[in-house]
Amino acid sequence: MNKYKHEFTVVSASESQETLDYVNRVLKERDIEFAAKPLETSRFQVENIKFAYVFYEDGLEVNVMYTVDDPKKRAVGFKLSEGMEVPKELEGKFKFARQKSKLAGTIRGSFFVIKREY
């Protein structure tokens, strides 16, 4: 369970093309397209917030948090697993801050605010 009282589950990326398409459409807002292979995804809604996650084979995690009724609370987050280099697609575009994670140890993360409607 996470702070939203939702049991987090993932499915194979090969079984979740709709989630991959959605996340890729949002990433195009910043002209971002990852070369790494997506392995797993998760997509769910808790109250008025839609969530989508993609986990890549190189250790990158991308998440979209999209509040349905508040355009000011919509963002894409990037998490780099411990020891991972910044992917070339994000190099120089984002600054990554260190974060402590109960599950993953010390990770680095960054984000951007979503401007468009999805």
Automatic annotation (TrEMBL):
This is Phage tail protein.
